[in-house]
């Protein structure tokens, strides 16, 4: 309780010290991946500068993931902050602050809050040519989106079956339809494995994932009502809610409520037995250089009409001083079921801190960026992932606990980065520790390629390991073609089973902007062990509109 009071005190004080800038969100997608260098494609990189931090949605929270090293008009070459792998087509979000010389009217136009889910849905989208001029009331139709077809092929020389998976996506964001007060947002994914069509027919949601599907009505600039599946940015860690949501703003204060159900925890389909309702209040302030936004919510969740969970949710983000940003969330459970002396279940009121995340990041000019975090949240549940088994083990072991990382731009082209993590949970037999470092040279003389070498050391209660990697990447045709090659040497030991695992992993990547709004990419990964060989091929065709 004392620690909770301290956290609350710090957050309240920091809220009073700062105001909120009119930060806009620009969405992109990973178009090329090497072990540490990541290319992110945007509709435009205007407002994104070398040294800026890019974010990824992790459990519906924007988490720092990349540092921008260089950029072209459409893409950024970045180095990885977190040890977890990014894959081609992953969503990346850039937060762009307005220039200090912006006029008041320009700043006002940028003050709209963009939900994480909407950012995910519209990643990589551009404005449609069918947009209409604004009406006298100020509404202007804006339609953007993209669609893609992807193929994932896995084969090996083992007894395990080879597989071919297909994935179709469609995201659409239609604001002020017909210059009205109605808007629509959606993001669908349909994924299935060849030969498993019977499973799809028996359970459509085993293949169809609806991450966002909502109709919004805004009678004026201070009120918004939505119906459907949507993630509320005020309470983003809660995840998507199926039902009705409403919010009203009074100057710096906002109040809101939601009623509906939660997505099914098994297949992310609709499950109206998981009803929930809640209310929240938020406070935000804005000025040209700093920002703060704080939300407090009460939520009651049920399962078959019985209370399953009742909790408070707190979310806070703040730019305390120039180049310093802070983000935090925590959850306090107010209800639990206990077994009494007679062996019967009894409900009981409680006040338990069950989830906490704190993150602080500071940029010393364009030379050095430092960040630290403490994570006591539950691990992420993936409804779609193409991470390998070892990737998932590493991510799970390295995510919770303490993490510190730093990136230094030693020269214009020479970058040094390091990260260290530590965790010791009750379920862990021993502490988990990891250290990761890399060196990147973005313009190697003579060949004009970006090169990176890296090393990772990992020790958990179940395994120890080392990973060494090197990669090269190069742009052609003014950034329209991106290529890369990478190699990793993996050496793991599992003391309990007294086994070791050595892998040689090779990667090849190719991305081509065929036309202004058409993209094609290919990624190959080969994993070679002493006797077994695994091959993975990813191909994607994506069209923006």
Structure description:
Strand 22 and strand 23 form a beta hairpin. This protein is mainly beta. It has 5 helices and 29 strands. The strands form 2 sheets. It has a 22-stranded antiparallel beta barrel. The radius of gyration is 24 Å and the shape is globular. The N terminus is likely disordered.
Features:
mainly beta, 5 helices, single chain, 22-stranded antiparallel barrel, 545 residues, 8% helix
Question: Termini distance?
Answer: 52 Å
Mean pLDDT score: 78
Helix content: under 10%
> Total number of helical segments?
5
Q: Biggest sheet, in brief?
A: 22 strands, antiparallel, barrel
Low-confidence stretches: 1-22, 98-129
In what range is the share of β-strand residues?
over 45%
Short description:
The protein has 545 residues and is mainly β. 8% of the residues lie in helices and 60% in strands. The chain has a 22-stranded antiparallel beta barrel. Strands 1-2-5-4-3-6 form a six-stranded antiparallel beta barrel.
Record the SSE blueprint:
Elements lengths: L1 H16 L6 E10 L3 E6 L10 E6 L2 E11 L3 E6 L10 E6 L7 H6 L6 H6 L4 E2 L14 E15 L6 E13 L6 E12 L3 H6 L5 E13 L2 E9 L8 E11 L2 E11 L6 E17 L4 E13 L2 E13 L5 E16 L5 E20 L3 E8 L13 H11 L1 E9 L4 E10 L8 E13 L4 E11 L4 E13 L4 E14 L4 E17 L2 E11 L4 E12 L1
Antiparallel strand pairs: 1-2, 1-6, 2-5, 3-4, 3-6, 4-5, 7-8, 8-9, 8-29, 9-10, 10-11, 11-12, 12-13, 13-14, 14-15, 15-16, 16-17, 17-18, 18-19, 19-20, 20-21, 21-22, 22-23, 23-24, 24-25, 25-26, 26-27, 27-28, 28-29
């Amino acid at each position: 309780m004392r620690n909770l009071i301290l956290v609350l005190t710090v957050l309240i004080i920091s809220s009073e010290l700062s105001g909120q800038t009119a930060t806009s969100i620009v969405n992109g997608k990973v178009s090329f991946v090497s072990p540490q260098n990541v290319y992110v494609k945007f509709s435009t990189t205007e407002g994104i500068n070398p040294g800026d931090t890019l974010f990824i949605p992790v459990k519906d929270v924007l988490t720092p993931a990349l540092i921008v090293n260089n950029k072209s008009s459409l893409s950024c070459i970045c180095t990885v902050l977190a040890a977890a792998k990014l894959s081609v087509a992953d969503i990346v979000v850039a937060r762009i602050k307005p220039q200090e010389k912006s006029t008041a009217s320009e700043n006002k136009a940028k003050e709209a809050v963009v939900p994480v889910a909407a950012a995910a849905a519209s990643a990589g989208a551009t404005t449609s040519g069918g947009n209409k001029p604004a009406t006298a009331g100020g509404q202007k139709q804006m339609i953007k989106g993209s669609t893609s077809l992807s193929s994932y092929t896995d084969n090996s020389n083992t007894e395990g079956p080879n597989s071919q998976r297909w994935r179709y996506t469609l995201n659409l964001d239609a604001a002020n339809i017909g210059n009205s007060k109605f808007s629509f947002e959606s993001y669908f994914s349909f994924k299935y494995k060849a030969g498993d069509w019977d499973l799809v027919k028996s359970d459509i949601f085993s293949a169809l994932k609806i991450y966002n599907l909502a109709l919004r009505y805004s009678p004026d600039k201070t009120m918004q009502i939505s119906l459907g599946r949507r993630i509320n940015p005020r309470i983003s860690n809660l995840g998507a809610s199926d039902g009705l949501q409403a919010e009203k703003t009074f100057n710096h204060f906002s109040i809101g409520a939601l009623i509906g159900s939660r997505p099914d925890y098994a297949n992310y389909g609709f499950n109206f037995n998981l009803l929930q309702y809640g209310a929240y209040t938020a406070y935000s302030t804005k000025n040209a250089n700093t920002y703060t936004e704080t939300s407090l919510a009460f939520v009651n969740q049920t399962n078959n009409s019985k209370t399953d969970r009742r909790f408070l949710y707190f979310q806070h983000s703040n730019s305390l001083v120039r180049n310093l940003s802070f983000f935090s969330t925590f959850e306090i459970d107010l209800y639990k079921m206990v077994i009494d002396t007679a062996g019967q279940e009894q409900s009981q009121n409680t006040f338990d801190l069950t989830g906490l995340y704190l993150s602080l990041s500071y940029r010393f000019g364009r030379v050095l960026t430092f960040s630290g975090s403490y994570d006591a949240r539950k691990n992420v549940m993936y409804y779609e992932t193409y991470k390998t088994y070892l990737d998932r083990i590493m991510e799970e072991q390295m995510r919770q606990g303490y993490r510190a990382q730093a990136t230094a731009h030693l020269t214009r082209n020479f970058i040094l980065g390091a990260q260290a993590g530590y965790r010791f949970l009750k379920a862990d037999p021993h502490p988990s520790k990891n250290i990761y470092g890399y060196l990147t040279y973005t313009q190697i003389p003579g060949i004009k390629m970006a090169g990176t070498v890296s090393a990772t050391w990992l020790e958990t209660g179940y395994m120890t390991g080392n990973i060494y990697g090197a990669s090269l990447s190069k742009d052609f045709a003014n950034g329209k073609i991106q290529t890369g090659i990478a190699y990793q040497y993996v050496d793991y030991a599992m003391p309990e089973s007294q086994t070791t695992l050595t892998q040689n992993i090779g990667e090849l990547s190719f991305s081509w902007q065929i036309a202004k709004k058409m993209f094609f990419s290919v990624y190959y990964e080969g994993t070679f062990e002493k006797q077994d060989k695994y091959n993975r091929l990813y191909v994607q065709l994506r069209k923006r509109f």
